[in-house]
Amino acid sequence: MPLPTYAAPLKRLADEIVAWNAAAGKFPTERDATLEELLNQEARVVEELNELVHAMAEDDLIETLDAVCDIFVTATYYLALAKSSQASVESCVVPPADLDELKVQISELAKQAKSMRDRSIEQLRDNQFIVDSLKVAIALVRDLPVDFIGAQQAVNENNASKYVADENIAADSVAHYAAKGEEVVAHASAYLGSPVFVLKRTSDDKIMKPIGFAAVDLKPFLYAG
Predict the structure, then answer these.
(1) What letter would DSSP give residue 20?
(2) N or C, which end of the chain is more exposed by having fewer CB within 10 Å?
């Protein structure tokens, strides 16, 4: 698929990720992200990058695809938080490269993450580590027998299913967590123009899964070899 054609759906998917976070009240629409917010989001990218290194070492195609999808979620959201002047989702879509070389680059990025020191918020806004991680992850799946765009769409839709439109399901979910000793509140919000309820645990503001939530299955996005 030509680069502009490939980039367009990825930009749409990245916009959905921002909208998902905004629905939960986590995206700072009226202020700049803080140093702590950027560092926390960078840590999530590092965690998923390490998952990718492990999946590749195990030669596990499904887990590799899963890790790349998670890198896409965390890294594109980082770029949105940072309001980077140097990078965009579209600019991170690069031509496929040699697979072995990409694996080396991914391993080097994981090593780099272990040695990163304190940086200013200005440095974090133009974070080359995030850009490089996103570029190499996208390049990797273009070399693998997978439908990455389809998989990422499925991941986005699965995340969106954590938000429920039915007030009764939201109430039943709150009761389910209460029975386990967890205080969860259903917050009325909107996602992509539709009213939803967001379940959030009061102790740490974590978004909780509603009853009946099913994990995403990425097996349909592997090409038969």
Answers:
(1) H
(2) C
Instruction: Answer yes or no: are the C-beta atoms of 20 and 189 closer than 8 Å.
Output: no
Separation between Cα atoms, residue 128 and residue 133, nearest integer Å: 8
- Find tokens 């299913």 and name the residue: 161
Classify 50 as helix, strand or coil.
helix
What does the alpha-carbon distance between residue 139 and residue 133 come to, in Å, rounded to a whole number?
10
**Of 68, 54, 56, nearest in space to 10 by CA:** 68
Q: How far is CA 123 from CA 27, 42, 120, 130, 143, in A?
A: 20, 12, 5, 12, 31
Where do the domains of the chain lie? Answer: 3-159, 162-201
* Model pLDDT, residue 2: 52
pTM, two decimal places: 0.93
The tens digit of pLDDT for each residue in 116-147 reads: 988 999 999 999 999 999 999 999 998 899 99
CB 210 within 8 A of CB 49: no
